[in-house]
Amino acid sequence: MNYRKPRFWHTFMQQKYLYLMSLPFIAWVFVFSYLPLWGWTMAFQKFKPAKSFFEQDWVGLQYFKELFQDDSFFQALRNTLAMSVMGLIAGFTIPIIFAILLNEVRIQVFKRFVQTISYLPHFVSWVVAAGIVTKMLSTDNGAVNDLLVGLHIISEPIQFSAKGNMFWGIVTASDVWKETGWNTIIYLAAIAGIGPELYEAARVDGASRLQQVWNITLPGIRSTIIILVIISIGHLISIGFEKQFLLGNNLVRDYSQTLDLYALNYGLGMGRYSFGTAINIFNSVVSVLLLFTANGIFKKITKESII
């Protein structure tokens, strides 16, 4: 114990400038991530904005009981989990495949052109992206309907925006189109870190390109994939509401409402701030449990973890 203390302060003095540089980031995390947790007390109060903290009426777990007795909550939970799982599967497999295919391209001009084109949708706001998707799926000269009719797959245009059973797929496909190029960046960086001598040795042994991908590329980016999967599982229940809000309408409401939209409509929209806070606490607690569960499972099976 006497040895560790001097060693810590010795390291601290050696790296004092690094510690000082980290202070603004620590302050930012504290102010924007930990200080707002004080607002969680509203979930246990009958919160009235005009009253001070000590004048609020405490109601215990009343709003959590109301939450778990509301059928709309379970419907929103179903929609959230369904779109999250679909997005998790598509959002990982497609960028990995795309990154591997890009890595195999030997014509650098074509490779950079494809990368640039694939990155562009990420920088478009969801307001504009949703407008593009809606127009593409429109029955009036929509590209998707025109293509399907032209190929004689369907006889007349389909009103995609009115089909609730198609909404999850539309949201997932839209997210893949918008984010695939951006998500490939980290996989391309991980692939670039694999030693070229491994590929040279594999070619000398007569390995095909597919065998090189399976035995060198995928194992080389395995740690990156696992870490990103664990983090994404932690966010399964907190997928936001922008895509669903912009692409949805009253006709598909039963399929488009996520937990965040539920909190917005039934919490802030109705002035029920305590109820909205209870929903967000549920989201946060479940997210933490999912994160630790996924981390524990992957740590036991693959020996890879983030904690």
Count of beta strands = 2
**Overall mean pLDDT:** 89
Structural class: mainly alpha
What Rg, in angstroms, do the CA atoms define? 25 Å
Low-confidence stretches: none
Which percent bin holds the helix content? over 70%
User: Which of globular, elongated, flat, extended, rod-shaped describes the shape?
Assistant: flat
Brief digest:
The chain is mainly α and 307 residues long.
SSE blueprint and pairings:
Elements: H1 4-14, H2 16-34, E1 45-46, E2 57-58, H3 62-68, H4 71-104, H5 108-119, H6 126-136, H7 143-150, H8 164-192, H9 196-204, H10 209-220, H11 222-234, H12 242-247, H13 253-256, H14 259-268, H15 273-302
Antiparallel strand pairs: 1-2
Give an overview in words.
The protein is mainly alpha-helical and 307 residues long. Helix content is 70%, strand content 1%. It is built from 15 helices and 2 strands. The protein has a two-stranded antiparallel ribbon with strand order 1-2. The radius of gyration is 25 Å and the shape is flat. The two termini are 25 Å apart. The model has no long low-confidence stretch (mean pLDDT 89).
